[in-house]
Amino acid sequence: MSSTPTTVSASGHAKAIRTLLGVLSSVLFLGGLAACGSGDEQAASSTTDPASAAGNLVQAGESGPWEVGVRTIEITDAQNPERRLPVDVWYPVEADATEGLKRHEYSFIPGLGYTSEVSWDEAPAASGPFPLVIYSHGSGGFRWVSTFLTEFLASKGFVVAAVDHTGNTALDEFTGQSLPEAEVAQVRPRDVSSTIDAVLALSADSADPLAGRINADQIGVTGHSFGGYATLAVAGGASGPQGGLAADSRVKALVALAPYTSLISEDQMASITVPLMVISGTLDTTTPIDPQTELVWSSAGSRPLVRVDITGAAHNSFTDLCQLRIAVGQRPDVPEAISAELERQSGQACGAEVLDYLEVQRITRSYAAAFLIDELGGSSQFAGVLDCGDAPPTVQCRVRN
Known about the structure:
Elements: H1 14-26, E1 41-43, H2 50-61, E2 67-77, E3 80-93, E4 103-109, E5 112-121, E6 130-136, H3 147-156, E7 159-163, H4 170-175, H5 181-204, E8 214-224, H6 226-236, E9 253-257, H7 266-270, E10 276-281, H8 289-299, E11 305-310, H9 321-329, H10 336-345, H11 347-350, H12 357-377, H13 383-386, E12 395-400
Parallel strand pairs: 2-5, 6-7, 6-8, 8-9, 9-10, 10-11
Antiparallel strand pairs: 1-12, 2-3, 3-7, 4-5, 11-12
Helix pairs in contact: 1-10, 2-12, 3-12, 5-6
């Protein structure tokens, strides 16, 4: 089976918990067709056959042919060895290699988590090599907060690694261990580069189960909210109290989800030339499109630069918060007060006034996969999608080439 990304289908205490849930929801993630554009901007349906583009978008959003394995490693901050960074790594697995294995359990704390329906614990990796994508969670988040995307990309033929940004996770908020924002803004892109280093080292280690599984020339980064900032900063550089951080030239493609861009200057944004997709929600009041996404659209030097605005999507729509709410609510051992608090706190992503979270996730997966497959895989399989041909009614898509 080819290792090139493809879309071919195949087979405590209640009070403490309530405080934590408040952190998860309020801090976790700070993290029609377009009108015709001008110059090098193209609007939806401007250059491609609509029927072909629509089929490609559906295909891009379908789960890939691979089963998915996952393992957890721990790395350290090169500038602060006491700062330890857990990392989840998802990777493609052959369909016949999961017999006798267990599904992975995502557990933030006992009673707050769920069993994956996709990932297998410590499954043997398929041969590869595969492109590598790094995921960066939002402020006060955690590494498995968007498995709807990370697991999906692994099924498509990517190795995906997501790091806990220690000092800016949900547990750090809960325990009062959070770092100041200026320091977080500097360590986050450094964490991304450190994660790249660590995963490439696994691939280079002949004794590691991921030996030879990663193509070091095909590396992308994606992230949500403050993780969207990290996605951009890793390609444009960052500055802070510990000095400057240069752009990581190994990164070849970026997908920023509802990015937090207030800490990025116009000049820094203009210095980003790596192919870039930005996906945002029109009902996002945490990192609203204006001004957060607008800065990317007006200033980024990336070409292509693809912008996808999802009508009715909110900030937390780009996470697993709704799935987490459902999973916790179905557990008989979870106190009713905790379930009720999670229900109350999850309205931004799961409420009746927003677009159904599963639809937001489907759209996000489709566009992100199309972009990463074409940019990292060197194909033009989804050229129609990336030229914004026949965008769904809930999507305004624009591109600058």
